[in-house]
UniProtKB/TrEMBL annotation:
InterPro entries: Homeodomain-like_sf, HTH_AraC. The keyword Heme does not apply. It comes from the Bacteria. GO terms for molecular function: DNA-binding transcription factor activity; sequence-specific DNA binding. Keywords: DNA-binding, Transcription, Transcription regulation. The keyword DNA repair does not apply. This is HTH araC/xylS-type domain-containing protein. PROSITE patterns: HTH_ARAC_FAMILY_2. Residues 229-330 form the HTH araC/xylS-type domain. It comes from Sphingobacterium paucimobilis HER1398. Signal peptide: none annotated. SUPFAM superfamilies: Homeodomain-like.
Amino acid sequence: MKQSLHIQLELLFGKPCTAERLDLRPDIMMKTDLVTYWKNEQGEAILQEFDGREGYIYQLDLSLTSSIQLPLQVLAIDIHAMYALSTAAPLMLIDPVQQQCYPLADQRARFFYLPARIYHLQVPAARIQLFGFYFQPKLFRDNNERPFKFLHPLIHAHRNRQIQSLCSVDFKVGNTTKNYIEQLLRNVKKGDLDSEKYILDTVITLLQLARTEIYDEYERTSDPEELIRRCRQRIADQIRDSSQPVILKNIAKQLHVSFEHLCRIHKEQHKTTLLAYRDELLLDKIKGLLTSSSYSLSDISERCGFSDSNSLIRFFKKQTGTTPAQYRENLR
């Protein structure tokens, strides 16, 4: 991936130096030739970078005796993630064009949509560890961004080439996320094709972990009515928008509750089973498609998550007592 973020350490520290001149040592050294070392009266810095085909990652270690404003030059529109792994006081990403400030506290992270221009990162006098990566939103195709609601405004802004910067909610960097970041930094190796795939897989994993952290912090609920409302909404959304079968146990996992508990409280609230609710919505979708002569049974099977037409016919007959062909004939 072409580098589109330049952390302009040279504007504050001058020329880079050798590692031997620094007292600062990073916790993890990446296997990359893109490592630069910096030192002056303001402190020390180590920037490690890895240019992968599907994503660009970096680790910035700082030890500062005074606070600084670090220029960040963004050359192309990507989606950025920044993780403050360690900082004594919040970092602040500043967009001078919009006069907008985005805080980033210790062991917190955010995603950003950053149009091309110069930004500034306000960094306190302290020992700082900042991990970041950025990627092109073409990673999201065919509505596969739907589970990542926290990214929707950023993806929308990118697709419309908006000139305003945006950020997601901030979220905790949990232990699982820290472990994944450490694995990523230890395992990437320049020129290794396996590392290219590993970066893509790990970026996707970090997105999934961010979704979980955000859900736990902002969306998790112990209210049974709200839980079932979210459950039914997820089922309805998946049936409406996806051609994949809706697996109820996966819905329970997404909501961080047991499948048995979800089924029980759904039955208590709606006097019907969760399976019956799913099948009712699926049947409505099939009936809607049958009203159009442009869809064959094979087309409908594929759109509704059945393995073949025979599976669709068996399901439809069990639910209605008639076949899809008979139902379509009766509509005429």
